[in-house]
Protein 1
Amino acid sequence: MLQDRLGKDLLIFDGAMGTQLQEKGLKAGEIPEMLNITHPKWLQDIHEAYLRAGADFITTNTFGANRLKMKEAPASLKEIIESAVHNAKEARKKVGKEAYIALDIGPIGSLMEPMGTLTFDEAYDIVKEQVLLAKDEVDLILFETMSDLYEVKAGILAAKENCDLPIFVTMTFEANGRTLSGSTPTTMVNVCSGLGVDAIGVNCSLGPDELKPIIEEILSVSHLPVMIQPNAGLPCLVDGHTHFDITREHYCASVLAYAKKGVSIIGGCCGTTPAFIELLKQTLPRQTALRKISNKTLVSSGTDTIELGKTITVCGERLNPTGKKKLKQALLDQQYDRVVLEAINQERAGAHVLDVNVGVPGIDEPLAMKNVIKMVQEVVTLPLQIDSSNIEALETGCRYYNGRPLVNSVNGKMESMESIFPIVKKYGGIIIGLTLDDRGIPDRAEDRFEIAKKIIAKAKDYGIYEDSIVIDCLVLTASAKQSEVMETIKAVQMVKTLGVHTVLGVSNVSFGLPDRPLLNRTYLTMAMTAGLDLPIMNPMDQEMMAVIDAFNVLHHNDVDAACYIERHVEQTKKPPVSSNTVFTLKEIVMRGIKDEVVLATRKQLEEKNAMEIINTILIPALEEVGNGFEKGTVFLPQLIQSAETTKMAFEILKETFKKDTETLKGPIVLATVEGDIHDIGKNIVKVVLESYGFLVIDLGRDVKVEKVVEAYHQYQPKLIGLSALMTTTVVSMEKTIALLKQIEHVCPIMVGGAVLTPEYAQQIHADYYAKDALQSVEIAQKVIG
Ligand code: THG
């Protein structure tokens, strides 16, 4: 059984498929998956070569075999997948050795919300179809080259809910050490392990040497077998073809070092061949190296991860309608802008996690939970705590949450544990256990301690262990239950001996008493000393936050008081955050708060003209976000949110411009090149150019080379702008330029996009390189006037 060998035997995967297919004769623009049907012999030969080289696994030629990417294929998805599996099985039969066949599933190829338009449920359905077509004939499912963790989550659920096969997941990372949608390696590992995959790792991206920090981070946090499939070094263009720059000897030496550190599944990606796999087989040991396994408690958003217990983790309590009339009404009316602002304000005030509770009488709570989780995770990168007494709402929240959530909560009643633990296990939550049961909340600490033990013991029956449990000893208000306040503190101390972390709704203590903040922060100090790790509290209470800073110094969490001192310096410069803080247009644009942008833009127009607003607010905001993206402090989803919000601001401003096309300068033709579906950069350039008075003809995204040429003849533009966001589509940019340059006296061509550099622009014979929207205006003014 494969499962018995995982983590014990060092297992070898195959190498690149694409490179091999190109050698057999795959042409550019052809659908590689069609070769399963048209050239089965090619596929069988490639699989056979990898098997003979020593691979334990072969991967079906189904990377893009999903209903979206195969829309225009001249065969059905069923035929494509079945023939791909058949080819792998034929090769295995011919070689006659035991080997595992992995159903290959690559990225869907369309971006998910909020970056694109694909919904979670659509992504789920697409993968479900792939899984159902192959599940009875393959040995495992491999999600590979994934760049969006949310898509991975949809895929894992689609696989788990429709078959029992082992699941391996590898993602690709950018040079900044994050996936395209911003996940760190730790976040990937934490979320995927929570969802119950069988192996986790990295493929493609870079060569084995450049992947060192990523592989080491994965090894340091993963309980699961770690898998790597690096490229054969870095790509370089030689005579218009992509080559990879390291030898198989170099490759093997590099990956051997990782095997010695505990990587247990090794194969190759771009540029690797059967010869690489053969040498791997000769070089690598048969058994895996032992690894030290950590048992940290980690909660994750889609991008970042927080370790509980390392220092005090502040859970913001304000996304909770209890006692808030307006928030209640807003939730009932499905008006979520108030919720979104509350989330952002708490993040700005320094919360580390946000509790999300949508419990209003009469509301469709599962639906409200789904909507609010989706909205909130689009605007903040903090991990969320899903808070509900409605089991269906908890499950819906866990399902649509992008990350590994805290789940608030289970209690010591049998029915609660029996209904909540399966959900927590399935979605991989960190569960909060309340120390109450059928008899209510016991008065004495000892009895609460017993309930905590009962919860921890019962969780084990479901495969949930101490590192996924946080115990709440329950604090009640001192106005009614004064004698129990200290019992809670005592219970926290006792529970800490069980090896779990603790949480308390600190603000409960002061209900019904005057000067609540004073009681809250005093109680917070007492509880932290007793071992409280996760206070649920109001982060807008800056004095309470200051108490935590001070505690971290006095408790030796904040070594050398570095954070304390830094914050002290910052605070003297920054105005305090309050719930009533009004966002400036610049902040709205940078945060991507779409609900606020129209009003804020109109408001600005009362004082400034459109051009001023563009130059002094919108462009600086876009630049700041763009710089953040380059530095790795802002990620693609935020970048896109921000750009779309800017677009909405531009739409308002455009109303004030002259609509007279006679006086417009240009025209300028813009296109995002073939194969590239990321058009946000081009869209920004378009609105900025238009606001400077240019007539722009927008050809859209994924524009075929010939269409750009046609557009040139049709519109006779004075300038053409081409955009590409992905490395892989720079090639089609080069082709587009080559074809345009065949036209006599063709107008200048400017290029831009995340992966381009001035050098590269020159290499592919572009006339201008625009690093951002503003520079494209400068170029347009220079060329057209
Ligand atoms: N344990 C766990 N979860 C919890 C609690 C707990 N979740 C809910 C609650 N207790 C913690 N959250 C809050 C949220 C708000 C308030 C107190 C605790 C609060 N609200 C003000 C009121 O009701 O008067 C209104 C605030 C405002 O309008 O600004 O005090 O114990 N696991």
Protein 2
Amino acid sequence: MKFNRAVIKVGSALVSPDAKGCSGKYLLAIARFITECQQAGKEIILVSSGSVAAGRNLITHGSPNPSIPTKQAMAAVGQMKMMANWQRFFDVPCSQLLITHGDLKDRQRYISIKNTLRILLENGVIPIVNENDTVATDELKVGDNDNLAALVALVSEADSLFILSDVNGVYQQDPRINPQAKLLPEITKIDQSVYAMAGATNNHIATGGMKTKIQAAEKAVENGIETFILNGSNGDVFEKILRGGNPGTHFVAQQGAMRARKHWLKHTLKSNGKIMLDAGAVQALIKKGASLLPSGIVRISGEFTAGDCVDLYDASSEQYIAKGISQYSYRDLQRIQGQKSDEITTILGCCPSKVAIHRDDMVVIEKSEIN
Ligand code: GLU
């Protein structure tokens, strides 16, 4: 299986198999897999569950199902344990990103998360993401890390999502009842029948069981991300993946879905401003597929905020050439237009991004579409 950037979701059942603190039992093989991927030039983002389980024996609780604030306290203390546990398996640095659904819905925070992930990966650091359990009240919550992992795959523009837990994949029937039940190697369409089969394939510690894994797969494949449910407690699984095999259930990404994202940017997002570019920037965008730097901006009109969509024009011919999501508000862009990226900090006092519009957030309009 070929991939360049993957999100790997590791469930609580692997981080804390007995739900009483962290364990290295399964993480060693997962970490070795991540290191081998990195050595082969692939980029990996980890989404790790297990903070509540890791902190469980450090917070007094009298019930098998502690209250939400008690679980939040467990997560706060367990998160530290879990991060320390992960770091000991890597020579490269690990980093911690705690996010909520609220953060992903807010345009400016979404861009901050995207930029942070991009820079961490460029620096060979392993991003380790978990839900920010302390502040995640109901309406802010993703609720389970399977869906969080799918959202992280979208923000980071990953091409693959590996959901690791202690089950082999999706079975046609419950293998505990029917030991002959068949594992489904490939699912090309996620419909009610898939959810029904998923109901038969549950594991014991995970928050959402198989249902949230299928939901995550559905979100990911719709966006062109190949998704796999794999048994992370079986070291052979990683060997097989590295050899190009499929040891679990593969949810096949929808064809043309990547194009659909650009389609969404081009056709659905409303532009709130116009940016006129100099000849050098126009060439760089069209010919090299480059990002737009502040130095190439000649004029700005419209009032937009960071995260808004804007139209890009050639300043001399006034031809419409591209559309993209701005990293800066119109006020900040007006202050840095025509300037070198190195000057941004001096002018604005900070530099959230060296580019005005990143190439991943831009779609160039074909000549044939203009006329
Ligand atoms: N954020 C929770 C934790 O770290 C996990 C949620 C999940 O496993 O889906 O314990």
